[in-house]
Amino acid sequence: MFDFFSFLRKHGEITLLILLILISSISIGINTDGGLMTPKEAGFTVISTLQRGVNGIGSFFSNTVNSINELSELRDAYRQLQEKVSEYQEIERNIEELTNENKALREQLGFSRTSPYRNIPAEVIGKDPGNTFNSIVINKGKNEGIERGMPVVALQDGYHGLVGKIAEVGMFTSIVLPIYDESAYVSARLQESRYEGLITGSGYSDSILTMDYIKKIAREYIKYGDFVITSGMNSIFPKGIYVGRVTAIEGKEWDTSLQLEIEPIVEFTTLEYVFVLQRSGE
To answer: Which residues cross the membrane (predicted)?
Structure first.
C-alpha cells in the first residue's frame, strides 16, 4: 500500500520543488490586477520560481558542508588540546620528580655537613642479590678515597641508619655488603637499656634482622619500638649509628638469652643515596 507520508519524508525536497512548479503554473496566467499575463511574464515567473527552489536546495547543501567542515575543525582542535594536556601532565610529573630529588639532595647535603663523621656521599647505581652475598653498588671508588671495610650509612626519616660496609672497591665504583646479608654481623646495643647483642641478617632486603645473645634479665627493660644502635665494640662500625627498632621479643624458658627481631631503620628497597664513613685520621 502506498504510504504518502513515508514518501514525503524521503523525497521532501523534490516534492516541494514540484509543488512550487504547480503553484507557479496555476498562477502563470494571472497577474496582480486579475488580468492575464503575457507569455514572457509567465515564463519569467516560472523561471524565477524554479531559481528560488534551486537556491534553497543549494543553500541547504552549502550549510551542511560548512557544518561538516566545522565539525572536522573542532575534532582537530580537541585532538590538539588533548596532546597539550598530555604534554603538561608529563611536565608536571617531571617537576614533581625533580622537586623530590632536590629535597632528597638537600637532606643529604645537610647530613654530610653536620655529621660527626668524615664522609663521602655516594649514589646507589645497582643492587644484586648474588650467589655469594647480596650487594649494593655505589658510584664512588678508589679515586674518591673509598677503601674496603669502610662503614656505609644512609639518612632516613631524620636518622643516620646503618647500611653495611664496603666489600669490594673499584676505581670508580664500590660494592657494599648490606647488614641484611646472611654473612653480615653487627655488634649492637639497645639505646635505652644499654643491653648488648649481635645482629645478623636473613639474606633478604625486605626482611627483619635478628639480634641474639641479649641477657635474659633484660626482658623487663626492653619495649617494643626501642631503638637499637651500633655498640662500637668492633673496629668496623662507629658507636651510636641507628640499626633499627625492636618488633618482637622471644625467649625460651631453658634459654639463658633473649632473641629480638629488629626492623631496619633503612628502607633498602627504596635506597638511593648513602654516605661512606672514613675512619679517624683518614
So the answer is: none
